[in-house]
């Protein structure tokens, strides 16, 4: 936030920062497939609601037992506001869209997030003005991600179906995620970032759960818990423990101690991981375009995170 002090990455061991990046890169890349499995038999808003309610409650309870530092009423108010865009809106759109849109396409669309991180961070959140190499990195990364699906015969956009609508809504979700990510990094929610993370997940999960049952009340179509498959249940458990507790906490910490341009590189690596896991575990085809995309993505990440020696980020 403008005017707020933030820790510098140099204050932390380099291995810890690298480990946090690996968590965000790999685990978040795997969540695309996990979401696809979970919404096979679990309603999307219910899946997201359970995921963030459970993760938020666990994280918040653990941190409060450790710190004994209770959140304030003002902190809860800020946490509720900060949870709406990254959880209720963004994940509501993503989980619902993956009923129709393949997980690899969802990963592709996420590749435009670094552009939003650069521009929105610079214009509204006291970030650095993007350099030419940042835009070159974005262009190469996006080109690499496009190659991932270039040879997929199932990819077809048509304004005659609902597919295009969900693709456009996924595009909107990239913008709501980035704005929400900046807001979520507000240290005024709570001085302990893990407590703040738990508060936001709890609020976001509650909003998604209320939205699900409001929708059920309107349509008369209530969730049938006995119809949930074991694969969906396991995928949901994975999203709670790893996708939320581990990866989101690491992401929120990185947003406090690293430049947004660097953190945004997850948007290029996550789709690579998603496609590979889709091939290994989800029965999805692995196209030759993936091998062509990998070097482009690697170069794009280097351009986004490289700094001149001796220059503070």
What does this structure look like?
By secondary structure, this protein is an all-alpha fold. 73% of the residues lie in helices and 0% in strands. It contains 12 helices and no strands. The protein has helices spanning 14-38, 44-67, 73-97, 103-109, 113-124, 132-150, 162-184, 193-219, 230-257, 260-263, 266-281, 288-305. The chain starts with 13 loop residues before the first helix and ends in an 8-residue tail after the last helix. Mean pLDDT is 83; it is low at 1-5.
Can you summarize this structure?
By secondary structure, the chain is an all-alpha fold.
Head-to-tail CA distance between termini: 17 Å
Could you give the count of β-strands? 0
The string of secondary-structure elements, in order, is HHHHHHHHHHHH
* Share of residues in strands: under 5%
Q: Structural class given helices, strands, pairing?
A: mainly alpha
Descriptors for this entry?
313 residues, mainly alpha, 12 helices, 73% helix, globular, disordered N terminus, EamA family transporter, EamA_dom, AA-Vitamin_Transporters
């Amino acid at each position: 936030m403008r005017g707020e002090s933030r820790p510098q990455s140099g204050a932390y061991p380099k291995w810890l920062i690298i480990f946090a990046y690996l968590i965000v890169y790999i685990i978040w890349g795997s969540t695309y497939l996990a979401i696809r499995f979970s919404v096979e038999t679990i309603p999307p808003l219910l899946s997201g609601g359970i995921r963030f309610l459970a993760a938020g409650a666990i994280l918040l309870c653990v941190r409060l037992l450790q710190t004994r530092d209770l959140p304030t009423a003002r902190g809860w108010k800020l946490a509720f506001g900060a949870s709406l865009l990254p959880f209720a809106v963004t994940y509501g759109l993503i989980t619902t869209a993956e009923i129709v849109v393949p997980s690899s396409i969802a990963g592709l669309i996420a590749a435009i997030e670094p552009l939003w991180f650069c521009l929105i961070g610079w214009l509204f959140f006291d970030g650095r003005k993007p350099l030419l190499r940042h835009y070159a990195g974005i262009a190469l990364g996006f080109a690499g991600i496009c190659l991932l699906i270039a040879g997929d015969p199932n990819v077809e956009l048509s304004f005659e179906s609902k597919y295009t609508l969900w693709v456009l809504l996924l595009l909107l979700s990239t913008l709501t995620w980035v704005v929400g990510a900046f807001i979520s990094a507000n240290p005024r929610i709570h001085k302990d970032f893990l407590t703040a993370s738990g508060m936001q997940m709890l609020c976001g999960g509650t909003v998604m759960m209320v939205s699900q049952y409001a929708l059920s009340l309107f349509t008369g179509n209530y969730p049938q818990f006995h119809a949930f498959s074991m694969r969906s249940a396991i995928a949901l458990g994975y999203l709670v423990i790893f996708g939320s507790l581990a990866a989101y906490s690491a992401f929120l910490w990185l947003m406090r101690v690293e430049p947004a341009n660097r953190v945004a590189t997850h948007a290029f690596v996550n789709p690579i991981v998603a496609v590979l896991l889709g091939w290994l575990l989800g029965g999805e085809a692995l196209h030759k375009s993936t091998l062509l995309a990998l070097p482009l993505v690697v170069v794009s990440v280097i351009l986004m995170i490289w700094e001149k020696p001796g220059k503070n980020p």
